[in-house]
Input
Amino acid sequence: MHARHRGPRRDQGISLIGLMFWAILIGSIALVAIKSFPSVNEYLTIQRAVSKVAHDGHGTVPEVRAAFEKQKEIEYSIKSISGKDLEITKENDQLVVAFRYDNEIQLYGPVFLLIKYEGRSK
Output
């Protein structure tokens, strides 16, 4: 039996440049995820604290701000906002507490990621 010659054999697999491209891409995505995780965690903690304060039935704006400051002492991860940053309103005879803030995260050297957070009580 003779082996047929089918032309030049093509190598299969990934080249060094392709490997470097994927390593840089995955590394960049991982860097952004790792650096932004604490900020997202803080946002979720603020959201829970605001919802708790709104549903606890505090009557006046200073009481709501004071209750948020107490929650802030309990939840040690809240550093971006304070009680005075809350927007407190009433809608349909129900207390609504809203907040808005920006968070800059330094990724590398002069490169920053800006995340704008916004939320309200549920």
Helices lie at 16-55, 61-74.
